[in-house]
Amino acid sequence: MIGLCLGTGALSGWLTRDAITGWYHTLRKPPLNPPNWVFGPVWGLLYVITTVAAWLIWCERSAGTGALEIFLVQLALNFLWSILFFRLQSPAAALCDLILLWIAIAATIVAFSAIVPLAGAILIPYIAWVSFAGYLNGGVWWLNSRAAPATQ
Which of 38, 54, 78, 120 could lock 112 by a disulfide, CB 3.0 to 4.6 Å apart? Predict the structure, then answer.
């Protein structure tokens, strides 16, 4: 479980790194968009805390199999978002995925909290960041769907 979670984060970062300095750089971005260097450390930390939460549930396997399945769905949706947004350069499709991801994270928090309350609680920063990412993704989609990308 640990390798799957951290490996997903590492692969996601590796697959999207070129688009961040290329295509993403050309896009108009909403106010409050952090500098690019912020995303790596934040996502790295979030992958660590989601891994810890999943491990806490894994240790309670007899009670947590359904919860872990929900967790794996959100992990897959998280990975898919990077592909949709950066590799396929589709902020609209990524935003649709992000809405599903938010729902899956909320379901994971509820399921984890029922088994190990700490596991659910430590996912709160994750859903908060994904909420902020929804604002950023929606802003990028809105600002760039109506005009040519900005040159910077």
Answer: 120
CATH at 114: 1.20.1260.100
Nearest residue to 97 (alpha-carbon basis) of 83, 81, 86: 81
Q: Is residue 118 part of a domain?
A: yes
Q: CA–CA separation, 2 vs 7, rounded Å?
A: 8
| Residue with tokens 């109506």, as numbered in its chain | 146
| pLDDT for the residue 146 | 74
Residue 130: closest CA among 23, 5, 46, 27: 46
Which portions of the chain are predicted below pLDDT 70? 1-21, 63-64, 147-152
For residue 125, the enclosing domain spans 2-28+39-145
